[in-house]
């Protein structure tokens, strides 16, 4: 494992340093070759850094900045007034070569805008996309993009997402010929918007890609595709729907509902707790899948969920470290030159 430095916007997210600093310490404990540069308000951060082992202290660098970009701040305003903010300074550390990747749980639009301006998209990529891995029912993983960075996409955008997703899956999932599908409202060739149908034609024409057609929302976790492509609007809704459905199901199974009709209905599901298959599914920890990467940039940038807890944010840091060590941006650039 090679030595690595990451830059962290520790003021981003719903909880700021209360989560990001303990998560940073946890990440350092798990990865002895990792160093972190923390950008944020030292008055809020310092109390969490007292009485740390010398090994951890030596791999932490705190850069004070009192300004940060709020989660609900308008993107245009955030970008215009981003100078000196914790998010911008973290990305600038990557731009200047002081870190090999950045992690933030802050404003997604601002992070995307700053990353595009400061780090630049890879040659041949018009729009970077948010990508994340989803757990499948058979215990595997599926790569999905875009998850919210680009609300409207044309066929060429979707095609480029597929090219990047293909290379990302090869590296992250160790696959030789990943199965690629387009998220659509039906599996028939005549279904969907014109951009999706045109993208399907482009994908089918590229013999370097294993395009397997359209996929509907009810199959996202069924393992029928290794890479799922969508515009950011549809992808974000699909992801939030999955998260909400999972959380509601967990609440129902735990009896956290006042609905007298649903309670008896889900009593039967509790019996599945004794089923071996359910036991395997229960071990899927949502915190392990926190973090979406801004794919298509010249450096690694990982967006953590704003409401992430300590474990989840630590996993986002670990994900950024893995991608930086695997040199994912360079792998994508080389792959694009090979298959386009």
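Sequence proposed for the structure above (340 residues):
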């Amino acid at each position: 494992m090679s030595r690595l430095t990451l830059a962290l916007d520790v003021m981003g997210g719903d909880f700021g340093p209360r989560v990001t600093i303990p998560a940073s310490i946890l990440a350092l404990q798990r990865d002895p070759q990792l160093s972190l540069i923390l950008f944020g308000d030292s008055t809020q951060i310092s109390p969490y850094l007292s009485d740390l082992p010398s090994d951890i202290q030596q791999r932490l660098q705190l850069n004070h900045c009192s300004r940060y970009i709020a989660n609900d701040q308008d993107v245009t305003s955030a970008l215009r007034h981003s100078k000196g903010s914790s998010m911008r300074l973290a990305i600038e550390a990557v731009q200047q070569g002081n870190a090999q990747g950045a992690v933030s749980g802050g404003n997604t639009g601002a992070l995307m805008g700053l990353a595009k301006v400061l780090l630049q998209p890879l040659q041949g990529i018009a729009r970077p996309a948010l990508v994340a891995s989803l757990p499948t029912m058979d215990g595997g993983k599926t790569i999905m993009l875009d998850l919210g960075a680009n609300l409207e996409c044309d066929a060429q955008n979707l095609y480029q997402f597929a090219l990047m997703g293909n290379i990302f899956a090869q590296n992250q999932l160790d696959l030789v010929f990943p199965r690629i599908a387009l998220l659509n409202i039906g599996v028939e060739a005549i279904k969907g918007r014109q951009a999706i149908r045109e993208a399907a034609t482009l994908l089918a024409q590229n013999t370097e890609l294993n395009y397997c057609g359209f996929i509907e929302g009810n199959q996202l976790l069924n393992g029928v595709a290794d890479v799922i492509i969508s515009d950011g609007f549809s992808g974000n809704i699909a992801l939030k729907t999955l998260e909400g459905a999972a959380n509601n199901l967990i609440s129902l199974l735990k009896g956290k509902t006042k609905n007298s009709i649903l309670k008896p209905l889900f009593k039967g599901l509790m019996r599945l707790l004794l089923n071996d298959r359910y036991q395997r599914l229960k071990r899927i920890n949502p915190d392990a899948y926190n973090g979406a990467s801004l794919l298509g940039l010249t450096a690694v940038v990982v967006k953590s969920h704003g409401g992430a807890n300590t474990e989840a944010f630590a996993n986002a840091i670990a994900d950024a470290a893995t991608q930086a060590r695997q040199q994912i941006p360079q792998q994508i650039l080389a792959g694009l030159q090979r298959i386009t």
